[in-house]
Structures are given as structure tokens and as C-alpha cells.
Specification:
The chain is an alpha/beta fold. About 40% of the residues lie in helices and about 15% in strands. The structure holds 2-phosphoglycolic acid. 2-phosphoglycolic acid (PGA) binds next to strand 8.
């Protein structure tokens, strides 16, 4: 049975301990009968509330951080290491999200160092890549994604390649309610597969999950995930709505347990 990935990126939300507790109550209620089959669910929470999430998430839901620093300890004011995250019960981390590239001016080199350090420390790495609106308008989306991915993977040792998940998030689709067509997503998926294969070989490339992110809702899963042969989704705003997040988990589970009526890219 295929396993789909559902990752909620809460970004800089919820904004207080009370709001976190309300969110976690609702999420536990959503999954009160256990997690649906065939879906690996993860929530990426803000740093100050990681410990609260670690103890309050429904059983079986993974905890991710939204950023990490590449050094292990020392004079790096404001930074957080992979070991600190692991110590809090975090199992994976988002690296290279477009909002980090934009607001924190993260470069490809920073992202490569973060991905390598997190993977070496035993964290799963959700590597976010995606073209800008200008790059797509000029037909450069494949090159842009291949360049970002090539740079980001350059420092990750092959032995840790299986810790990588790639999230294709076109920047123009994040927070905009605009989504690419399944054909557009699928063609970038092929570019991603090729870039991972160039770095780690074909067997590993087939094992690395590729997710879509950017304005995903439960009703758009057929276009953004199933028809585009993706392995799951990275969800921003809608992950803040527990019943919508639960609907997505159920839809992914139904698809996983239905036995793959849509061709899987691994077998194309
Ligand atoms: P969105 O965000 O679902 O709100 O578009 C996705 C993301 O930034 O990961």
C-alpha cells in the first residue's frame, strides 16, 4: 500500500499557549479513533511551542520544526541546532521554505548546510523548492527547481539521502489560492526525480517522496496530488483548521487504501 505524506506548516501560528492548546484539543478530537491508514501525518510548529506540541499531538503524528541552524552549538545568537530539536521530540524539519528564502534571505548555500546538518543529525529533511512567478512566466521553472535542488542536496551524504522529502512549492501558489495544473506539477516532479537521481542514483530517487505545496485544500487534492502522481502535500493555511486537515488525511487514506487506480510515476 502506498503511504501518502500530509505535512501541516503552521508558520507563525497559533499565537499563544492557550491558542496552541485549543488547536491541539481540536486535532486530537479529529483523530480520536486513531490515524487513518496509509497516511504519515506531520505538523511543523513554531519553536516556542515545540514542547507543547510534542506532548499534545495525537498519537502517531510526527513533529517538525520550521527551520534549523547548521552548527551544533556555540556563539550563534538566535539559532537552534538539530540536536536541540531532537531533544524536544522533533523528528523532521522544513528547510528552504520560500518564506525563509524571502524574509531571512536564506541562500542556496545556507540551505545546503542546513539540509546536510539536519540529515546528519538524524532528522528528516523536508526540502522546499519552487520557482517564482517570473521564472514560470519566462519558462524557466524546470531550471530554477533543478538549480535549487542540486545546490541543496550537494552537501547531503548519500548515506542520509533517504531522510530527504522534497516539497515542490511554486512561490506564486503559496497563500494565493492559485494552483498549477496537474500536468504542470507532474512535469516539475520529473525534473525533481532527475535531479535527485543525478545526485544519489535512481534507486534512491524512486524512494524520495515528492510532495506538492501551495494553496492546497481537501477539494483540490485530486489536481494537486492524485492526478499529478505526487506522494502527498505540504499544507499551510488549511492546516490551521483541524477539521479541514482531518478531511485531507481521510481523502489521502481513501486513495492509499483504494490500491492506486491512478498510475504511479514510479511505474510510468
Ligand atoms: P499555503 O502555504 O497552503 O497557505 O499556500 C503552503 C506553504 O507555505 O507551505
Amino acid at each position: 500500500m502506498k503511504t501518502y505524506h500530509l505535512i501541516g506548516n503552521l508558520k507563525m501560528n497559533p499565537v499563544s499557549r492557550d491558542a496552541v492548546d485549543r488547536y491541539l484539543d481540536m486535532l486530537r478530537h479529529e483523530f480520536v479513533d486513531g490515524l487513518p491508514e496509509g497516511v504519515a501525518i506531520t505538523v511543523a510548529a513554531p519553536f516556542p511551542y515545540l514542547e507543547r506540541f510534542a506532548s499534545g499531538l495525537p498519537e502517531g503524528v510526527g513533529l517538525a520544526a520550521q527551520d534549523v541552524f547548521w552548527e551544533g552549538e556555540g556563539a550563534y545568537t538566535g539559532e537552534v541546532s538539530s540536536a536541540m530539536l531532537r531533544d524536544l521530540g522533533v523528528s523532521s524539519v522544513l528547510v528552504g521554505h520560500s518564506e525563509r528564502r524571502r524574509y531571512a534571505r536564506e541562500s542556496d548555500d545556507d540551505i545546503a548546510k542546513k539540509a546536510a546538518a539536519a540529515a546528519e543529525a538524524g532528522l528528516g529533511v523536508v526540502l522546499c523548492v519552487g520557482e517564482t512567478a517570473e521564472e514560470r512566466a519566462s519558462g524557466r521553472e524546470a531550471d530554477a527547481v533543478a538549480e535549487q535542488l542540486g545546490a541543496a542536496l550537494s552537501g547531503v551524504p548519500s548515506v542520509h539521502a533517504r531522510r530527504i522529502v522534497v516539497a515542490y512549492e511554486p512561490r506564486w501558489a503559496i497563500g494565493t489560492d492559485r494552483v498549477p495544473t496537474p500536468e504542470e506539477i507532474l512535469s516539475v516532479r520529473i525534473v525533481i526525480r532527475r535531479a535527485v537521481a543525478e545526485r544519489f542514483g535512481h534507486d534512491t530517487a524512486e524512494a524520495v517522496p515528492v510532495l506538492y505545496g501551495g494553496s492546497v485544500r481537501a477539494v483540490s487534492l485530486p489536481e494537486t496530488c492524485f492526478d499529478a502522481a505526487m506522494d502527498g502535500v505540504l499544507v499551510g493555511r488549511e492546516s490551521l483548521v483541524p477539521d479541514e486537515f482531518g478531511r485531507m488525511a481521510c481523502a489521502l487514506s481513501e486513495r492509499a487504501t483504494a490500491g492506486g487506480t491512478v498510475p504511479d510515476i514510479d511505474r510510468i
